[in-house]
Amino acid sequence: MKSELLDQAVITFSSRSSNEGFARAAAACFAARLDPTLDELADVKTAVSEAVTNAIVHAYPDRLGKVTMRLRLYAGSVMEVQIRDTGVGIPDVEQAKTPLYTTGSEERSGMGFTIMESFMDMLKVRSAVGKGTTVTMRKRFSRRHGATG
Question: How many distinct structural domains can be found in the chain?
Fold first, then answer.
């Protein structure tokens, strides 16, 4: 049974590296309504940063494109973050999720999906070559006094 959807927001921005910080801040502000701990908030910000950076760097290697971030809050103190691009896509998602695997330059660590998995409770990656990639992540926050979820 799916939890009750409390609220959602959709933000679309260009794949400029400067928008990674904007996406982190927007996700943190939205998550704050569930009264997360500072550590939980840092986890969400880190995972969002990795997902958005992947879209910016890998989805559109030679052009600007569109990145859409959908934020959802559910009853039970659950947040879902979805990052979607319409870029080049990932030929082999399982290989891409392997630690240290990267199609980027030598500055890239190849740890993006591993980091997302370690900071969030759920990670799902759907991709089609030439059509783009959707990364969906969920995190359940600890129940604290005053939380609205």
Answer: 1
What whole-number distance in Å separates Cα of residue 126 and Cα of residue 94?
10
Show the domain range for 74: 5-140
Asked whether residue 135 is domain-assigned, the answer is: yes
Residue 48 forms part of a structural domain? yes
Is residue 54 among the annotated active site residues?
Answer: yes
Stronger pLDDT, 87 or 147, i.e. the higher one: 87
108 SS3 class: coil
pTM for the model stands at: 0.86
The 10s digit of each residue's pLDDT in 17-75 is 999 999 999 999 999 999 999 999 999 999 999 999 999 988 998 999 999 999 999 99
Q: What is the DSSP letter of 136?
A: E
Residue 107 lies in a domain: yes
Which of 19, 20, 40, 50 is catalytic? The answer is 50
Known catalytic residue at 108: yes
Q: CATH no. for residue 61?
A: 3.30.565.10
Neighbours of 133 (CB within 10 A): 24
